[in-house]
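Discussion board: Methods & Data

I've been asked by a reviewer to show the raw model output for two of the constructs in my manuscript, not just the figures. I'm not sure how much to include, so I'm pasting the format here to get opinions. Each protein appears as its amino acid sequence followed by a line of discrete structure tokens. Is this the kind of thing reviewers expect to see in a supplement, or should I convert it first? Here is construct A:
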Amino acid sequence: MSARKIIIDTDPGQDDAVAILLALASPEELELLGITCVAGNVPLPLTSKNARIVCEAAGKTDVPVYAGSKAPLARPLITAEHVHGQTGLDGPELWEPQMPLAGGHGVDFIIDTLRSHAPGSVTLCALGPLTNIAAAFNTAPDIIDRVQEIVMMGGAYFEVGNITPAAEFNIYVDPEAAEIVFRSGATITMMPLDVTHKVLATKPRVEAIRALDSRVGHFTAEMLDFFERFDVEKYGSEGGPLHDPCVIAWLLQPALFSGRHVNVEIETSSALTLGMTVADWWGVTDRKPNALFIGDADADGFFKLLTERLARL
């Protein structure tokens, strides 16, 4: 089989960085056509810088990296330096990337790529707020039917929220964009907090990555050393959850995950529950299922895959 064509849309973020590394380490299965950056965990100048740093760390400087949307569709930007640090990639010693940004806007790259490839042959991997993808759908609705699948990290239901009592960060930053995407009719696989909180970077798992004794191994371990402090303090867990790499792991080994096709609606108006992903888990409405909501994962299998792939870089 030929490699699956993907675009990674991202706001790095340590866990985004690990997801990018996992994709870059898996060229037999995944052909990374490009990376589009969006404002989210940190502002756009940093997310577009961080994506290039990650590519350079992996020695994969031929992947085009585009700057995309610098603010949500209809709201002021909310960022998460309290989680990711001021750079978004706090932990390792960072550098100024030598890779230039690709010319043009990330939204235009998404549109042009979907139009230039065969229908149903490009998957969108959304690791941050859905602003770029929603903007592309708004600008060029003809591309929606050309998307093979959207695999995204975002939302929650039983785990409720991590930025407010009811909302997960990626959806909360741009709920209007999320509403556009979930109502688009595109095929969606959703990695919510319900599954990502089960994939914890415990100390033994981080040490196994550090023991690779490579540039990528040390870079990843140092990111995770920093990243875990927030979640360990907040949740009392044994390590930080690796949210975004679940998107890439799903494409590589879907048998590691299980979930249910349900209807997911996005709350865009309530002061109390803005950004909530309301999942009809028990089918109590007549709303048509619009997403595969992943709820469980084989965490040991996930980290075995991640560590084995990082060893290739």
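Construct B, same format:
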Amino acid sequence: MNQLHEASGRLVKMPATPDQPVSYRLRVGDQELPLNELMGQTIEIAYSGEIRCIHCNRKTSKSFNQGYCYPCFKRLAACDTCIMSPEKCHYHLGTCREPEWGETHCMTGHVVYLANSSGLKVGITRASQVPTRWIDQGAVAAIPMLRVATRYLAGLVEVACKQHVADRTNWRTMLKGEAPALDLVAERAGLLERIAPDLDRLASEHGPRSIEVADDPPWQLDYPVAAWPQKIKTHNLDKEPVATGVLQGIKGQYLMLDTGVINIRKYTAYDVRVRVLSE
């Protein structure tokens, strides 16, 4: 068997390249499997029962925040509540768990965007994570709306947007390929008009250069999917440690097998063996 079609080690989030379609790799330990090349083949993912923290490598019985042990979950800034709720950022109060980490990850330029994964949604990401963030969410289209100075400010803008637009993806709809057609340029213009008073207030509080309107065209993203699942069934490695099936598609951080879908990001830090059973 080709060595590149078998790998063992700790799972991490799938790296992806914004080709047409998106090109995925499955990173297992120090190896990467070229997933697009494995479409139509039977693969097996076998969980050994061991989880090791992606930060300190400590063995843990449970993964917290997608890959951390409990001590790291409680200690690291990457696991603080403000990561999920950026409007709660407390760096400016001097209470950041890791100020240096905050400088590089939060006190830097962010993008507030609109995306179409299962319908219109608003989100934020570091400028350096465009378009990776959109691929991870399985967006078929996305468009930058605003460029802002910090994650905290991006969170405040997102709060204003959430009065008018959802901030969640329906992952089941996303995996069925049922996202409606949307004119993101028009949606951006309409939302900017609705939140204009909020933007004026935030600009007066944080400085006129802290918020800039983006005029970028939409990104269009296509995914390697041969067959959309009609009914969503999930593989749960904690309950059934071996998942086997024909690879029919890849979208977001999900592998679509003919036996069910598996969220690779959910199993970050899990020790697995991945094999290609048919070539």
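Answer (T.O., handling editor elsewhere):
This is acceptable in a supplement if you add a one-line summary per construct. For B, something like: Helices lie at 70-75, 81-84, 99-105, 132-136, 151-161, 171-175, 184-194, 196-206.
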